[in-house]
Amino acid sequence: MRRRRFIGSAGAALGVAAMAQPAAAAVNSPADTTASQVPAPSADKPLAAGDWKALRQLFPLTPDYIHLATFLLASHPAPVAREIEKHRQGLDANPADYVHAHSLKMEMETADSAARYMGGKGANIALTDSTTMSLAMMFSGLQVGPGDEIVQTVHDHYSTDMSLAHKAARSGASIRQVALYDQPAEVSVEQCCTRLAAAITPRTRVVAVTWVHSSTGVKLPVRALAEVVSKANDGRAEQDRILFCVDGVHGFGIEDQDVTQLGCDFFAAGTHKWIFGPRGTGVLWGNDAAWSRSEPVIPGFGLSYGAWLGMLPVDKVPPGRHFTPGGFHSFEHRWALPAAFDLHLALGKANVQQRIHQLNTQTKEGLASMAHVTLHTPMSSALSSGLVCFDVDGRTPDAVVQALHAKGIIMSSTPYRQSHARFAPSLLNTEQEIDRALAEIRALA
Ligand SMILES: Cc1ncc(COP(=O)(O)O)c(C=O)c1O
Q1: What is the per-residue pLDDT across 74-119, written as a single tens digit (0 to 9) for each?
Q2: Closest C-alpha residue for ligand 1 atom 16
Q3: How far is the CA of 445 from the centre of ligand 1 (A)?
Q4: Least CB-packed of 87, 115, 183, 335 within 10 Å?
């Protein structure tokens, strides 16, 4: 009775019913009729790996500007926009049946597509709405209390700082902040590792770092830092082991990296920046040990709801599904995320990394040659990625941003207490655009 009532009501809306029904019943459901009435997205011309001009044409970005801040919030490329439209039409035509037919299946497909791009398995990936939501879930779920210490860095974004501050206030754990470098342009692997090792104490239970600093453009040597954490974990009992948590949003969509091989326990990232995913999407990957030491903050829907109703034991719900915040979402955006991962895989992760670093190097070399400019981002591609931070003598970062905007170039200033001007040369730029932006900076002398 209980099961039938669930399938007929809440379960239908949560998509668990589709999982529980025999396949034939699910296929013949009215929801599938609705789905089949939605026109399939028309196929793109296959995108040749490395054809950056063709890639740029997939974006509706205005040609009136040179866009050097596209990483802030994605413009939707055509394949993503088409998937959004497909799901939007289905939801608008028949929301109850469409969500019933698609929610659990699409959540799993979306997590699996993330795994194909980032590594690991979809069962370990929770879907979120932003980097901030991923970070807040990651830190809020930690099992820490009075006497425990969280080590973070002074280079982290507001969203890490405040998520940790809120967690500390709730739990009684304390926070220790460490500077891994003083001069970003001179950062070294050894310096970062030495400083992190010195900050860890027997009370440390969590280490939080940011892969690429949006304040300086420094890319931390996360793999080497993971070794430091691993050494500190030697001989610790499982419950005392330090969890290594990474805000990976910058770097994700640039670096040719299986993030599950970075050596971290948790990896949080928005997918509406470098990945070109739908606005309002993100991921949180955790390894099995990390998830097992976490507590969900927002109840999951789908399988977790089914567990609550007694349809399956809660330990049979994969962590990625259990930790994906429930409630209904802007599903047309979330379910279009696979199109963005597929686009990156079609371009080739190695090609993407090579291209962005090529344009970054062109930018950094140009800026470094100007006497009135101080470049803060390291020249080395091993220690930087995507973001190029600098200052122009006699001008505030915002004044530089405004001066370039007046010349048709959109850039940003870093939203930190110590702010810098920032270029983010991406797959959507050409060498000629970088030269034009550099010429305008040169003209500010
Ligand atoms: C390092 C870092 N973390 C987190 C965020 C927040 O990202 P979101 O807008 O996806 O929450 C940003 C924003 O750019 C960032 O630079």
Answers
A1: 999 999 999 999 999 999 999 999 999 999 999 999 999 999 999 9
A2: 214
A3: 32
A4: 183
Looking from the CA of residue 282, the nearest atom of ligand 1 is 10
pLDDT digits (tens, 9 = 90+) for 343-373: 999 999 999 999 999 999 999 999 999 999 9
Of the candidate CATH numbers 3.30.450.40, 3.40.640.10, 3.40.30.10, 3.10.410.10, the domain formed by 131-271 belongs to 3.40.640.10
Give the number of other Cβ atoms within 10 Å of residue 368's Cβ. Answer: 14
CA of 135, closest atom in ligand 1: 4
Quickly state the pLDDT bin for 47 (edges 50, 70, 90). confident
Q: How far is the CA of 133 from the centre of ligand 1 (A)?
A: 10
The finding on whether 163 has its CB within 6 A of some atom of ligand 1 is no
Distance 132 CA to ligand 1 centre (A): 6
Helix axes 189-199, 222-233, angle to 10 degrees: 30
Superfamily of domain 348-442: Aspartate Aminotransferase, domain 1 (3.90.1150.10)
Residue extents of the structural domains in the chain? 131-271, 348-442
For the CA of 133, the nearest atom of ligand 1: 11
**Best of 132, 158, 275 to mutate for ligand 1, by most ligand atoms within 8 A of CB?**
132
404-429: pLDDT as tens digits: 999 999 999 999 999 999 999 999 99
